[in-house]
Specification:
Shape: globular
Number of strands: 2
Order of helices and strands: HHHEEHHHHH
Largest sheet: 2 strands, antiparallel
Number of helices: 8
Distance between the termini: 90 Å
Helix content: over 70%
Strand order of the largest sheet: 1-2
Radius of gyration: 23 Å
Strand content: under 5%
Length: 256
């Protein structure tokens, strides 16, 4: 099972697969961060860990069910001139779920709460976990198919998936906190999820969209937004410095 330890090519494949699994896991982190943000502060860390643990468990279960995974590719029926398989159905349903959920979250972000003080819409803990588990199946399917297509050793796949989820566990809280602290980043993340949802639906209907294009668009948008945040912070500091200087000057002026 571990005869590949002495093979340099196997270690290169392991490193490559780990990197790909982390990149594919970014979608999962974004989705979990947004859902967890609807929970009370004391429950978020627990929900985040359980959600990512579910992601790892789903990936491993699918990985150990390779015969079933391969069977999902077999056509079940024909629709709109395309052969539809079990995998296609999962992708399309998952894509529509992402589009619906993202649209709902964007709509909720613009709703004005008519109350004496700000109130947060708090969702049920179990409800959030169920939503995370459902989308984990979709994201995990993509991840496992990538793993199966890249390497031949099951042990390499397992190590790469466990290691990538470990990295996601470390990165999930900083990313979640950053998304919560910056409303524009949250809106951008929701736009990413809509883009991913559309991509999943297209893939379900055998319209292949290269992932490189999707991730480039996401990375470019993120860089632009980071620059905007940096500029806004500089302007805020400059305004604060000017107000402080004016206040100090008034205090130093002698009374007539």
């Amino acid at each position: 099972m571990f005869e590949w330890f002495a093979s340099p090519e196997a270690w290169v494949a392991l490193a490559t697969l780990m990197a790909l699994e982390i990149v594919l896991g970014i979608d999962n982190i974004i989705f979990i961060s947004i859902l967890v943000g609807r929970l009370p502060e004391k429950q978020r860390a627990k929900a985040r860990k359980i959600g990512l643990s579910l992601a790892m468990g789903t990936r491993l279960l699918l990985l150990f069910s390779l015969a079933w995974i391969m069977g999902l590719v077999e056509p079940l029926f024909i629709a709109f001139g395309n052969e539809i398989s079990g995998r296609d159905i999962i992708l399309v349903v998952g894509g529509f779920f992402l589009l619906t959920k993202s649209t709902h979250e964007i709509h909720g972000s613009f709703e004005i709460q008519e109350a004496s003080k700000a109130q947060f819409v708090v969702s049920g803990f179990i409800s959030i976990l169920i939503q995370i588990a459902l989308l984990d199946v979709v994201f995990s399917l993509d991840s496992v198919i990538t793993a199966v297509g890249l390497v031949d050793h099951l042990s390499i796949m397992v190590i790469a998936i466990v290691a990538s989820v470990g990295v996601m566990l470390v990165a999930a809280k900083p990313i979640g906190d950053f998304v919560d602290a910056n409303p524009t980043i949250k809106m951008l993340a929701l736009s990413f999820l809509m883009l991913i949802g559309f991509t999943l639906i297209a893939e379900g209907f055998d319209v292949h969209i290269p992932k490189g294009y999707v991730y480039f668009a996401m990375a470019f948008s993120l860089v632009v937004e980071m620059l905007n945040i940096k500029i806004r912070n500089r302007r805020a500091k400059a305004v604060e410095t000017i107000h402080l200087a004016k206040k100090t000057l008034k205090m130093k002026m002698p009374n007539k």
